[in-house]
Amino acid sequence: MFPDSATTPMALGGLPVGPNVTGVLSLDDVCLEGRTVLLRVDVNSPLNPETMEFMDDRRFTEFLSTLEDLSLSKVVLISHQSRPGYLDFTSTEPHSVLLSELIGRPVGFVSDVCGEAAISAIKGMEDGDVLFLDNVRKHEEEIRMKRASPEEMATSEIVRNLSSVIDAYVTDAFATSHRSSPSLTGFAGEVPCIAGRLMKKEINALRTAVFDPPRPYVVILGGIKCDDSLRVAQNLIDNGSVDRIAMVGVVGNLMLWADGVDIGATNREFVKDSLGDSFEETWEMAGDIISNHHSLLFLPTDLAVESPSGRRVAMPVSDLPTELPIYDIGIQTMRDLRPLIMEAGCLLWNGPASYFEKSEFAHGTIEIMNMFVEAPGVTIVGGGHTSALFNQRGKAGGVHHNSTGGGAVLCMLSGERMPVFEALESSREKFAPLLPALGLSPRES
Ligand code: 3PG
């Protein structure tokens, strides 16, 4: 299915390791029965903007094999949901309810991250119990310390308090492995940090696409996280590993604007607001890519905007500016994308082409999804919203790899540093020799 890379070693967190991710501890290396385990997951999920209901449960179902492996431990789950200030920045209580429904047994919830309530709830756990802590980004350290050194993170409340009541840390948060924060990388020097089943599965599936992807290699970037997308585009261009980059969705709007198209004040403001502090830096990257690598880019030639009465109105890019919000790519753009997708040896797609939660504007994203399923090349899909769509429409089996990661996939495939991989590697270096003394070595079978 994938190009054969089984024998190619990869740099995981900067260190060369063998094909089976031997540079990190896995659940096969450690016996966690009867132990208290902090399990960092990424169940940051798309929520319906009107009802706040989960639109997809895949980030839950994908870590269940790890939970199954830990069924004789006390499992303390920790995750983020969205970012402070966003509409879907919620408590993780609904996440604990959904998980309980999925596994058919109780999952506790404590409305605290690492304070007294959390610590006393953890101390009260029995083997086999599962407890969800609150959204870790409710603790200000989680975002503030994103650039802190491992030593500084070790002094955070999150790491100090939780380390005092756990025996080991397991991570299945592949989708956030491109980030650094106390809950993601801070435990490396405190307790043995172990890659969960999902983490291993993702790395093993994606590494095949890292090495020598069949050409032409076409990447489609959409969605709203323009800063991540452009950094990745720049990396892919710099290391010469991509043949075409199609930019759609809000990323496409930004690039049209950087290319000198007046997209209108409403759309400019939307792009700027969504980038916040990262706007200047991202704008500079956009200008650089436009000036130096225009021939690699595919940008929309037509769009769809929403009329004041909520209707879809088609509009060629040459008719811009508009004061109406741009919510989709147009029919001609979809047609022009087709040969690019059908002739690609390897295709990577991250981020929707449209505001697809509004059915009038779902066409562009659905059309790309259909083309992906038809495409003969190796197909990889990432991004919460994009991969949720494949699941909802029953098309997840139509691609080679439907990742739980979005930005993480892009970063990994473009050769960026992956702080969580690095933390796993450094924890293994420190703790692998200490496992017998800690009583965590697996029993001889
Ligand atoms: C994602 O959905 O890409 C991850 O959960 C990371 O989220 P973030 O971009 O807010 O760090």
Q: How would you characterize the overall build of this protein?
A:
With 445 residues, this protein is α/β, with parallel strands linked by helices. The protein folds into two domains: 25-203 and 418-438, Phosphoglycerate kinase, N-terminal domain (Rossmann fold, 3-Layer(aba) Sandwich), CATH 3.40.50; 215-376, Phosphoglycerate kinase, N-terminal domain (Rossmann fold). It is built from 19 helices and 18 strands. It has helices at residues 58-61, 64-69, 93-103, 116-123, 141-144, 150-154, 157-163, 182-185, 197-210, 226-238, 249-258, 265-275, 279-293, 331-342, 363-374, 384-392, 407-413, 419-431, 435-438, and strands at 10-12, 15-17, 25-26, 36-40, 74-78, 108-110, 130-133, 168-171, 193-195, 217-221, 244-247, 297-298, 302-306, 312-316, 326-329, 346-350, 378-382, 401-402. Strands 3-9-8-4-5-7-6 form a seven-stranded parallel sheet, with helices on both faces. A six-stranded parallel sheet has the order 12-11-10-16-17-18, with helices on both faces. Helix 16 links the parallel strand 17 (378-382) and strand 18 (401-402). Helix 10 (226-238) runs parallel beside helix 13, helix 10 (226-238) runs parallel beside helix 17 (407-413) and helix 14 (331-342) runs parallel beside helix 15. The longest helix has 15 residues, at 279-293. The protein is globular and about 70 Å long. The model is unreliable at 1-11 and 13-21 (pLDDT under 50). Bound molecules: 3-phosphoglyceric acid. 3-phosphoglyceric acid is lined by residues 42, 44, 83, 175-176, 179, 384, 406-407. Residues 42, 44, 83, 175-176, 179, 384, 406-407 line the site of 3-phosphoglyceric acid.
